[in-house]
Amino acid sequence: MIPSLPAAPLVDDIIDRALAEDLAGGDLTTDATVAPDRDAHATFVARSELVACGLPIARRVFERLDGAVQSEIKVAEGTLAARGTALLEVRGRARTLLAGERVALNLVQRMAGVATITRKYVAAVPSGSRTRIVDTRKTTPGLRVLERYAVRCGGGHNHRDMLGSAVLIKDNHLVAAGGVRPAIERARASAPHTSRIECEVETFEQLTDALDAGADVLLLDNMDDAMVAEAVRRVRARNGGDRLFVEASGGITLGRIPALAAAGVDVISVGALTHSAPAADVALDLSV
After folding, report:
1. 102, 160, 181, 234: which one is catalytic?
2. Gap between the terminal Cα atoms of the chain
Protein backbone atom coordinates (compact mmCIF):
# COMPACT_ATOMS: atom_id res chain seq x y z
CA MET A 1 0.00 0.00 0.00
CA ILE A 2 1.33 3.43 -0.98
CA PRO A 3 1.80 5.65 2.10
CA SER A 4 -0.20 8.84 2.35
CA LEU A 5 1.68 11.94 1.25
CA PRO A 6 2.52 14.56 3.87
CA ALA A 7 -0.03 17.37 4.18
CA ALA A 8 0.08 19.72 1.19
CA PRO A 9 0.77 22.91 3.22
CA LEU A 10 3.84 21.28 4.79
CA VAL A 11 5.12 20.13 1.41
CA ASP A 12 4.53 23.49 -0.23
CA ASP A 13 6.35 25.28 2.58
CA ILE A 14 9.43 23.08 2.11
CA ILE A 15 9.34 23.52 -1.66
CA ASP A 16 8.85 27.28 -1.50
CA ARG A 17 11.78 27.70 0.88
CA ALA A 18 13.98 25.54 -1.34
CA LEU A 19 13.00 27.50 -4.46
CA ALA A 20 13.60 30.80 -2.69
CA GLU A 21 17.05 29.58 -1.70
CA ASP A 22 17.90 28.67 -5.30
CA LEU A 23 16.13 31.49 -7.16
CA ALA A 24 16.57 34.50 -4.88
CA GLY A 25 18.57 36.20 -7.63
CA GLY A 26 16.64 34.71 -10.52
CA ASP A 27 18.13 32.30 -13.05
CA LEU A 28 20.70 34.34 -14.94
CA THR A 29 21.90 31.56 -17.20
CA THR A 30 18.48 30.37 -18.32
CA ASP A 31 17.11 33.86 -18.81
CA ALA A 32 20.14 34.75 -20.92
CA THR A 33 20.10 31.66 -23.14
CA VAL A 34 16.54 30.32 -23.43
CA ALA A 35 13.65 32.09 -25.16
CA PRO A 36 10.69 32.71 -22.84
CA ASP A 37 8.24 30.90 -25.16
CA ARG A 38 10.37 27.79 -25.63
CA ASP A 39 8.61 24.55 -24.57
CA ALA A 40 10.42 21.47 -23.33
CA HIS A 41 9.97 17.95 -22.00
CA ALA A 42 11.88 16.61 -18.99
CA THR A 43 12.24 13.00 -17.87
CA PHE A 44 13.48 11.89 -14.46
CA VAL A 45 15.48 8.69 -14.97
CA ALA A 46 16.88 6.20 -12.44
CA ARG A 47 20.61 5.81 -13.06
CA SER A 48 20.82 2.88 -10.64
CA GLU A 49 18.34 0.53 -8.98
CA LEU A 50 16.30 2.40 -6.37
CA VAL A 51 13.01 2.57 -4.54
CA ALA A 52 10.92 5.29 -6.19
CA CYS A 53 10.02 8.06 -3.78
CA GLY A 54 9.34 11.78 -3.92
CA LEU A 55 7.95 11.90 -7.45
CA PRO A 56 4.74 13.76 -6.45
CA ILE A 57 6.96 16.19 -4.55
CA ALA A 58 9.14 16.78 -7.61
CA ARG A 59 6.04 17.39 -9.72
CA ARG A 60 4.84 19.90 -7.17
CA VAL A 61 8.10 21.85 -7.48
CA PHE A 62 7.29 22.70 -11.09
CA GLU A 63 3.64 23.39 -10.29
CA ARG A 64 4.71 25.97 -7.71
CA LEU A 65 6.65 27.75 -10.45
CA ASP A 66 3.98 27.48 -13.15
CA GLY A 67 0.48 26.07 -12.72
CA ALA A 68 0.33 25.27 -16.45
CA VAL A 69 3.00 22.56 -16.20
CA GLN A 70 1.80 19.07 -17.13
CA SER A 71 3.30 15.90 -15.68
CA GLU A 72 2.93 12.14 -15.50
CA ILE A 73 4.31 9.90 -12.78
CA LYS A 74 5.50 6.71 -14.45
CA VAL A 75 6.34 4.60 -11.37
CA ALA A 76 4.31 4.28 -8.18
CA GLU A 77 5.87 5.41 -4.93
CA GLY A 78 7.59 2.56 -3.09
CA THR A 79 8.25 0.58 -6.29
CA LEU A 80 11.67 -0.94 -6.85
CA ALA A 81 12.83 0.60 -10.12
CA ALA A 82 15.62 -0.79 -12.29
CA ARG A 83 18.44 1.28 -13.73
CA GLY A 84 17.22 3.22 -16.77
CA THR A 85 13.59 3.41 -15.63
CA ALA A 86 11.71 6.61 -16.49
CA LEU A 87 10.22 7.82 -13.21
CA LEU A 88 8.48 11.10 -13.99
CA GLU A 89 7.78 13.16 -17.11
CA VAL A 90 7.16 16.91 -17.02
CA ARG A 91 6.15 19.25 -19.86
CA GLY A 92 6.09 23.03 -19.85
CA ARG A 93 8.11 26.14 -20.53
CA ALA A 94 11.81 25.32 -20.75
CA ARG A 95 12.60 28.17 -18.38
CA THR A 96 10.29 26.66 -15.74
CA LEU A 97 11.81 23.20 -16.05
CA LEU A 98 15.33 24.53 -15.81
CA ALA A 99 14.52 26.75 -12.85
CA GLY A 100 13.03 23.88 -10.86
CA GLU A 101 15.43 21.15 -11.99
CA ARG A 102 17.89 21.25 -9.10
CA VAL A 103 15.33 21.56 -6.31
CA ALA A 104 13.23 18.74 -7.74
CA LEU A 105 16.25 16.48 -8.18
CA ASN A 106 17.60 17.23 -4.73
CA LEU A 107 14.32 16.21 -3.12
CA VAL A 108 13.85 13.07 -5.21
CA GLN A 109 17.43 11.94 -4.74
CA ARG A 110 17.20 12.45 -0.99
CA MET A 111 13.82 10.77 -0.57
CA ALA A 112 14.56 7.85 -2.90
CA GLY A 113 17.86 7.36 -1.10
CA VAL A 114 16.11 7.07 2.26
CA ALA A 115 13.46 4.74 0.83
CA THR A 116 16.08 2.54 -0.82
CA ILE A 117 18.22 2.00 2.29
CA THR A 118 15.08 1.45 4.37
CA ARG A 119 13.97 -1.31 2.00
CA LYS A 120 17.30 -3.08 2.56
CA TYR A 121 16.86 -3.02 6.34
CA VAL A 122 13.26 -4.20 6.11
CA ALA A 123 14.27 -7.04 3.78
CA ALA A 124 16.85 -8.20 6.34
CA VAL A 125 14.13 -8.95 8.93
CA PRO A 126 13.46 -12.73 8.84
CA SER A 127 10.14 -13.79 7.35
CA GLY A 128 7.45 -14.23 9.96
CA SER A 129 9.15 -11.99 12.50
CA ARG A 130 7.04 -9.36 14.28
CA THR A 131 10.02 -6.99 14.47
CA ARG A 132 9.60 -3.59 12.85
CA ILE A 133 12.27 -1.31 11.39
CA VAL A 134 11.71 2.30 12.45
CA ASP A 135 13.43 5.63 11.95
CA THR A 136 14.68 8.15 14.52
CA ARG A 137 14.72 11.93 14.87
CA LYS A 138 18.17 12.00 13.24
CA THR A 139 16.72 13.73 10.21
CA THR A 140 17.81 16.64 8.03
CA PRO A 141 16.55 19.86 9.68
CA GLY A 142 13.46 21.06 7.84
CA LEU A 143 13.00 17.84 5.87
CA ARG A 144 11.72 15.48 8.57
CA VAL A 145 8.20 15.17 7.15
CA LEU A 146 9.60 14.14 3.76
CA GLU A 147 12.19 11.75 5.16
CA ARG A 148 9.66 10.06 7.42
CA TYR A 149 7.41 9.59 4.40
CA ALA A 150 10.37 8.11 2.52
CA VAL A 151 10.92 5.60 5.33
CA ARG A 152 7.30 4.49 4.94
CA CYS A 153 7.77 4.16 1.17
CA GLY A 154 10.69 1.86 1.90
CA GLY A 155 8.48 -0.36 4.07
CA GLY A 156 9.68 0.97 7.42
CA HIS A 157 7.76 2.62 10.23
CA ASN A 158 8.08 5.93 12.04
CA HIS A 159 9.17 6.55 15.60
CA ARG A 160 8.00 9.72 17.38
CA ASP A 161 8.09 12.71 15.04
CA MET A 162 8.78 15.36 17.67
CA LEU A 163 9.66 15.70 21.34
CA GLY A 164 6.02 16.24 22.24
CA SER A 165 4.88 12.98 20.67
CA ALA A 166 5.91 10.59 23.44
CA VAL A 167 7.81 10.20 26.68
CA LEU A 168 11.26 8.79 25.89
CA ILE A 169 13.71 9.01 28.76
CA LYS A 170 17.24 8.93 27.37
CA ASP A 171 20.70 8.87 28.93
CA ASN A 172 20.96 12.61 29.53
CA HIS A 173 17.50 12.67 31.09
CA LEU A 174 18.71 9.98 33.49
CA VAL A 175 21.70 12.11 34.44
CA ALA A 176 19.58 15.21 34.99
CA ALA A 177 16.86 13.32 36.88
CA GLY A 178 19.22 11.36 39.10
CA GLY A 179 18.75 7.88 37.71
CA VAL A 180 16.28 5.46 36.16
CA ARG A 181 13.84 5.17 39.03
CA PRO A 182 13.34 8.87 39.78
CA ALA A 183 13.08 9.65 36.06
CA ILE A 184 10.34 7.08 35.48
CA GLU A 185 8.51 8.00 38.68
CA ARG A 186 8.46 11.69 37.72
CA ALA A 187 7.33 10.86 34.20
CA ARG A 188 4.56 8.65 35.54
CA ALA A 189 3.37 11.41 37.85
CA SER A 190 3.25 14.17 35.24
CA ALA A 191 2.83 12.65 31.77
CA PRO A 192 -0.65 12.34 30.23
CA HIS A 193 -2.41 9.10 31.14
CA THR A 194 -2.54 8.21 27.44
CA SER A 195 1.25 8.27 27.09
CA ARG A 196 3.38 5.20 27.62
CA ILE A 197 6.70 5.67 29.42
CA GLU A 198 9.75 4.54 27.45
CA CYS A 199 13.16 4.42 29.11
CA GLU A 200 16.57 3.90 27.57
CA VAL A 201 18.86 1.44 29.38
CA GLU A 202 22.44 0.44 28.68
CA THR A 203 23.10 -2.07 31.49
CA PHE A 204 21.26 -4.94 33.13
CA GLU A 205 21.17 -2.93 36.36
CA GLN A 206 19.34 -0.11 34.60
CA LEU A 207 17.05 -2.69 32.99
CA THR A 208 16.07 -4.06 36.40
CA ASP A 209 15.48 -0.55 37.75
CA ALA A 210 13.29 0.32 34.75
CA LEU A 211 11.23 -2.85 35.18
CA ASP A 212 10.82 -2.25 38.91
CA ALA A 213 9.80 1.37 38.30
CA GLY A 214 7.09 0.31 35.84
CA ALA A 215 8.40 1.39 32.45
CA ASP A 216 6.04 0.50 29.60
CA VAL A 217 8.68 0.42 26.85
CA LEU A 218 12.35 -0.48 27.20
CA LEU A 219 14.94 0.89 24.79
CA LEU A 220 18.05 -1.31 24.79
CA ASP A 221 20.76 1.13 23.77
CA ASN A 222 24.19 0.21 22.42
CA MET A 223 23.95 -3.41 23.58
CA ASP A 224 25.60 -6.15 21.53
CA ASP A 225 23.55 -9.03 20.18
CA ALA A 226 24.18 -11.29 23.16
CA MET A 227 23.21 -8.57 25.63
CA VAL A 228 20.03 -7.82 23.69
CA ALA A 229 19.04 -11.50 23.72
CA GLU A 230 19.63 -11.72 27.48
CA ALA A 231 17.79 -8.45 28.13
CA VAL A 232 14.76 -9.67 26.18
CA ARG A 233 14.83 -12.95 28.09
CA ARG A 234 14.83 -11.07 31.40
CA VAL A 235 11.98 -8.82 30.29
CA ARG A 236 9.83 -11.73 29.15
CA ALA A 237 10.59 -13.65 32.36
CA ARG A 238 9.07 -10.92 34.48
CA ASN A 239 5.40 -11.12 35.41
CA GLY A 240 3.52 -9.53 32.54
CA GLY A 241 6.72 -9.28 30.53
CA ASP A 242 5.02 -10.28 27.29
CA ARG A 243 3.05 -7.05 27.43
CA LEU A 244 6.18 -4.89 27.58
CA PHE A 245 7.46 -3.37 24.36
CA VAL A 246 11.20 -3.76 23.67
CA GLU A 247 13.20 -1.57 21.30
CA ALA A 248 16.83 -2.00 20.24
CA SER A 249 18.86 0.99 19.14
CA GLY A 250 22.42 2.25 18.85
CA GLY A 251 25.13 0.83 16.61
CA ILE A 252 22.58 -0.89 14.39
CA THR A 253 23.98 -2.21 11.13
CA LEU A 254 22.32 -4.13 8.34
CA GLY A 255 24.13 -7.32 9.31
CA ARG A 256 22.74 -7.25 12.86
CA ILE A 257 19.08 -7.19 11.88
CA PRO A 258 18.47 -10.98 11.69
CA ALA A 259 20.03 -11.62 15.11
CA LEU A 260 18.17 -8.77 16.79
CA ALA A 261 14.88 -9.90 15.30
CA ALA A 262 15.56 -13.47 16.40
CA ALA A 263 16.18 -12.17 19.93
CA GLY A 264 12.56 -11.05 20.00
CA VAL A 265 12.73 -7.26 20.04
CA ASP A 266 9.58 -5.53 18.85
CA VAL A 267 11.31 -2.58 17.19
CA ILE A 268 14.76 -1.84 15.81
CA SER A 269 15.31 1.90 15.45
CA VAL A 270 17.95 2.83 12.88
CA GLY A 271 19.36 6.34 12.68
CA ALA A 272 21.21 5.42 9.48
CA LEU A 273 17.93 5.35 7.54
CA THR A 274 18.02 9.13 7.49
CA HIS A 275 21.38 10.41 8.72
CA SER A 276 23.49 8.16 6.48
CA ALA A 277 21.32 7.36 3.47
CA PRO A 278 23.24 7.99 0.23
CA ALA A 279 21.44 10.04 -2.39
CA ALA A 280 19.79 7.94 -5.07
CA ASP A 281 21.23 8.37 -8.56
CA VAL A 282 18.50 10.16 -10.49
CA ALA A 283 19.00 12.34 -13.56
CA LEU A 284 16.76 14.79 -15.40
CA ASP A 285 17.00 14.58 -19.20
CA LEU A 286 15.63 17.59 -21.10
CA SER A 287 14.43 17.60 -24.69
CA VAL A 288 12.70 20.21 -26.85
Report:
1. 102
2. 36
